[in-house]
Amino acid sequence: MSYSFKKYFLMLANYNAWANQKLFSVLKDLNEDQINQNCGAYFESLFRTVNHILVADILWFERIHGVVQSQYALDEIVHANLDSLTNARFLKDQSMIAFVQQLNDEAFHGTISYIRHGQRHTEPLIEVLAHVFNHQTHHRGQLHSMIFQITGVSLALDLIYFQREQADLYR
């Protein structure tokens, strides 16, 4: 079976929502000290890292939608508690799925332009979306490591597990 860009990126958007749901279901069972423990990662803690992922998604989707300059820094804490952050993550995941769903195959070949640090960039939308979904996966790997360090729990977040669960939709 051949994949269209839309089908492929819709799979990635749904995979990210699925993986985030699994991740946040573990985070809700941790105490405040565990969530904020400095684990030696780039963004230090579980809480700061999940905030970073959300901020990056907000920034990229602002760029995709033509917002000239965002108000957020990459290390900003946009939600001060886990409940609020969990809800915001769910809503962002749903909006990412809806965004990809409304694209036609031609739209993936378009470009976006944005300004970062005073410099104008123009990127193919297909590469931006690939980056957005890969960025989440990259940081979820860090989160997995931190969760294992804190709890000894290993999460099965690999794409292949999602694909097996959703085989009827993606094959």
Automatic annotation (TrEMBL):
Q: Name one GO molecular function term.
A: metal ion binding
Keyword match Iron: no
Query: Which keywords describe this protein according to UniProt?
Result: Metal-binding
The UniProt record gives the binding positions of a divalent metal cation as H52, H135, H139
The family this protein is said to belong to: Belongs to the DinB family.
Q: What is the name of this protein? A: Damage-inducible protein DinB
Q: Which species does this protein come from?
A: Acinetobacter haemolyticus CIP 64.3 = MTCC 9819
